[in-house]
Design a protein that fits this description.
By secondary structure, this protein is an alpha/beta fold. The chain has 10 helices and 11 strands. A 6-stranded parallel beta sheet has the order 1-11-8-7-5-6. The chain has a 3-stranded parallel beta sheet with strand order 3-2-4, sandwiched between helices. Helix 1 packs parallel to helix 10, helix 2 crosses helix 10 and helix 6 runs parallel beside helix 7. The longest helix is centred in the first third of the chain and has 21 residues. It is globular, with a radius of gyration of 19 Å. The protein starts with a strand and ends with a helix. Bound molecules: the ligand Nc1nc2c(c(=O)[nH]1)N[C@@H](CN(C=O)c1ccc(C(=O)N[C@@H](CCC(=O)O)C(=O)O)cc1)CN2. The site of the ligand Nc1nc2c(c(=O)[nH]1)N[C@@H](CN(C=O)c1ccc(C(=O)N[C@@H](CCC(=O)O)C(=O)O)cc1)CN2 has 17 residues, from strand 4, helix 6 and helix 10. Homodimer.
Length: 285
């Protein structure tokens, strides 16, 4: 068996086209979705992501503000900017690029973002709403994964999903979203004993552990769907996932590549969330 590849770039193009059309409809009503992205410091990867977010906004017809602050910005200064953006009518979504420099408390900053503008879905109220199944903006990477499964009509209900990794940004939310679709979910992490015994029972395996090529074919149940959220830069500069793609591809039914899988969906779902936030504030269906 050779797996079909879940192409995040192609799906992103489709979804962005949908967002663009919906944005044009809003503009006829005098509404332009607006996103503010805040970057503190000069982390090279973060700069690339922030530029991509700005570019995506312009392509879709959004209003975009990028605030680039120096590395020695104080927490008070950053909270002051978040407060200003919370009040600003042209802004429907606020995203503070992570990671933040060590002297700034990430949680304090996320908590300060108005829930209505929390397009990252990281605010504790957004997380709480997701847990109880109420309407909320979902974290972009897990939301992107769900979209990849659903739009490719990959069955979730009744399936055994195993998630490796328990981060607040990926592992925990994707476990909840899969459970919401009636999967039976097992969570594994760095201290799980006999991890292979669990992963070999997985119909859907999500890997978000942050270790290059951690998963090989010995982890895989034949025919499984494998979603790789890892992004690891090797010394030779190559970007690889947490899954050894070449080793696993003949064992599974579907697989996401790195690059070109889940990654591109992250920024696309940010655009979807910003559009939703704008529609919600203007009470548009
Ligand atoms: N506030 C947030 N910070 C961070 C988030 C987030 O969702 N919210 N996620 C990541 C970074 N990120 C977006 O911010 C992001 C990561 C990866 C990609 C992507 O398209 N990856 C490509 C490869 C890109 C490359 O070559 O480096 C891929 O996988 O194909 C987009 C966005 C952490 N911070």
């Amino acid at each position: 068996m050779t797996a079909s590849v879940l192409d995040g770039k192609a799906l992103s193009r489709t979804i962005r086209e949908e967002v663009k059309q919906e944005t044009a409809r809003l503009q006829e009503l005098g509404i332009q979705p607006g996103l503010a992205v805040v970057l503190v410091g000069e982390d090279p990867a973060s700069q690339v992501y922030v530029n991509s977010k700005h570019k995506a906004c312009l392509e879709l017809g959004f209003y975009s503000e990028v605030h680039r602050l120096p590395n020695d910005t104080t927490q008070e200064q950053l909270l002051g900017l978040v407060d200003q953006l919370n009040q600003q009518g042209t802004i429907h979504g606020i995203l503070v690029q992570l990671p933040l420099p060590k002297h700034i408390d990430e949680k304090a900053v996320i908590d300060a973002i108005s829930v209505e503008k929390d397009v990252d879905g990281f605010h504790p109220i957004s997380v709480g709403n997701m847990v109880i199944g109420d309407e909320s903006l979902l974290p972009c990477t897990p939301a992107g994964m769900m979209e990849m499964l659903k739009r490719n009509r990959i069955p979730i209900e009744g399936k055994h999903a195993v998630v490796i990794g328990r981060s607040n940004i990926v592992g925990k939310p994707i476990s909840l979203l899969l459970q919401r679709e009636n999967a039976t979910v097992t969570m594994c992490h760095s201290r799980t004993n006999n991890m292979r015994e669990l992963t070999r029972m997985a119909d859907i395996l999500v890997v978000a552990i942050g270790k290059a090529h951690f998963v090989d074919r010995s982890f895989i149940k034949p025919g499984a769907v494998v979603i790789d959220v890892g992004m690891n830069r090797l010394e030779n500069g190559k970007l690889v996932g947490d899954v050894n793609f070449d080793d696993v591809v003949e064992e599974c039914s579907w697989i996401t590549p790195v690059p070109g899988g889940v990654g591109p969906m992250t920024i696309t779902m940010l655009m979807v969330n910003t559009l939703k936030a704008a529609k919600r504030v203007h009470q548009i269906q």
